[in-house]
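Blinded run. Sample ID left blank on purpose so nobody reads anything into the name before looking at the predicted structure. Input follows.
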Amino acid sequence: MKFIDSDSLLSGSVGQRLTRAETSQSFGPALADQSAAPRNPVELSPRPPKLLVAGIFAGVGGFEEGFRQAGHASTMLCEFDPAARHVLARRFENTEITEDVRALTRLPDCAVLTAGFPCQDLSQVGRRRGIAGPNSGLIESVFKLLKESSRGPQWVVLENVPFMLTLDGGRAIRMVTNRFEEMGFSWAYRTIDARAFGLPQRRRRVVLIASRDHDPRPVLLTNDVGALGPGKRGNYACGFYWTEGNTGLGWAVDAIPPLKGGSALHIPSPPAIWFPRRRAIAVPAIEDAERLQGFEAGWTCLEDFDHRAGRKRWRMVGNAVSVPVAKWIAERLTAKVEQFNDERAEPLPEIGSWPSAAWGRGARRGKAVVSEWPVSEPSLHLASFLTHRVRPLSKKAAGGFLSRLVKSTLRYEHAFRADLEHHVESFKED
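Blinded prediction complete.
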């Protein structure tokens, strides 16, 4: 097997970070120990209280790691997948780990409940069975626990794919928000792009925050730096789905498309990357995929569980919540936030899809006019971000993708097709 050193594929200098300006041109009841020192020793104001967090559908701990980095602690994690539970047990050693949300009879004492509930029935490339599907429908177990909890958490944080806002005319988001309102919760949701947090992954996810005790709108909807405008490709590396090619590419300039737990070929697999300066077509290492989600490299290593678990790692990483997004949410929950102005809010449509951001409080609902970029963290070019060796896309995978692409009506650059053909031909020379 040939490997390509990612350092030789850089389109810019190694370690070069981009500011937002440069990028746009180129493209409560449960409190834990508070003994930790203040983040800024000069600041005399008290440190925000540490919150206890319970995680449902915890996966490999994206939410939990983000909250931990923000100074909070996990008290219970629930995850059905045994491989993911193995990762959780190693990464959160002193935390209770349970298996099946349907078997839970009550929530532990916690201030925050997180749930990145299954997206298979809500995804654009998934089963599309909707919110009542066998996987995504498990969100009902969360509502049952909340309903039967006498005190309940101060905050509930959910995460899922943006397609839930449009599938079946927005049925999923209507059901979720209706359930919260029936229990007396205020809510706010927003579509957030992971690129805003310095990750070269175009990963758009809906984050919904609900609370009986607080107004979630200032937490989620007041910070906004504006959307990133489309940029020119130049010589930057471009990510795409080699498993697609019929109806879409997942094309991403200077980034990869969203890491996924599945694909159109029904296998968990990495996206491919086109390095135009070297005419190379390659796939990133799983360690860089972990880093593209904000984890440390090796986070999902399963050598002591199943040494043949390569695809399991891709699935687990693809299903994870991006750590920097979770950390930002955690920090916002205890930050002093400005008041939300709802005087000129547009009402939500009674039928059809819902917007990318919205809120509900009391008897009112409204559309929120915010971008998918609440912040803009410095970032590296994709090629510079990769620190592990990339692997050439196999002849079979590249040839299959090229065949589908040529037969399709998709628009693509001639140089991209030429380099794909060059890549496939290069195997004949070996």
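Unblinding after everyone has recorded impressions. The CA atoms of residues 219 and 336 lie 9 Å apart.
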